[in-house]
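[#protein-structures] MJ: dropping Hydroxysteroid dehydrogenase-like protein 2 here for a structure pass
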Amino acid sequence: MLPNTGKLAGCTVFVTGASRGIGKAIALKAAKDGANIVIAAKTAQAHPKLPGTIYTAAEEIEAVGGKALPCIVDVRDEQQITDAVEKAVEKFGAYTIAKYGMSMCVLGMAEEFKGEIAVNALWPKTAIHTAAMDMLGGSGVESQCRKVDIIADAAYSIFKKPKSFTGNFIIDENILKEEGIKNFDIYAVKPGHPLIPDFFLDEQPDIITKKVEALGATLQLKEERPKPQTKPCSGAVEETFRIVKDSLSDDVVKATQAIYLFELSGEDGGTWFLDLKSKGGNVGYGEPSDQADVVMSMSTDDFVKMFSGKLKPTMAFMSGKLKIKGNMALAIKLEKLMNQMNARL
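AK: finished. structure tokens for Hydroxysteroid dehydrogenase-like protein 2:
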């Protein structure tokens, strides 16, 4: 596992969900360096089925050398977040590192705070064994999971990097390989046993299933839509834009206020635009009448998949299938429109 270096000594780390599971593992990893930990979680009283509270987590953190500030925080409550930040500043002076839930907001925040605050997203390559996984996966699921330690080590690796390391979507195993970790069996609950791929990463279920069956085990994967054997038929991009155009309204334009340019490669490709600034909105082939705020480059196949909900924009960006230039915050706004399109495409 990744050794502690003491680099986080004196740093203040604001960790949501730190009463148990992945959040607590990250907090403990930082605490071993002597960091100050703000434990921001909902559980103040013991849960009948789930172990740990913000107070028991505080005891564990202080036992390994850190300083703890337990705060009752529901991340859906803005006032509770504000109160916790104010308490952190009052007790520790400020906080320098934060762990929150992740989303496409990473891209916008990384651009907005560039040079001041680094914003990165971290995701597991495989299922991680937590109390939640036990509830969802049932008895025996732990043998197909990795321990929370791998996320803690990956987060620690990110914490050590400079502020210039920002706007990245990171897979735990990948960043640890860069740190020189070669034996990942140390993170497995049951070393040598096939692992469940994380449900939100693009994997190949047939390959995973064969590996599991070879050891006499069974694995239930989420149902996958049949993948087409050929590219979308000619005119798929044009049809997608037609559906998008039919869905436009003054409200959508008012809420978005952006012009998007799509540089599509492959059959039915070329340059297309989506104008969500002009009254009523507009789409078309070629260049828009005004300068684009966001330029997205990808293949026609992936474009159709993305607008129809078969390819997540986050995964498209992470895997290099989607390249974005321009205003990242406006790029994020487009994802909401895509979600509205999914049911119709």
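MJ: nice. The longest helix spans residues 78-92.
AK: one more thing. The chain has two domains: 12-212, 236-343.
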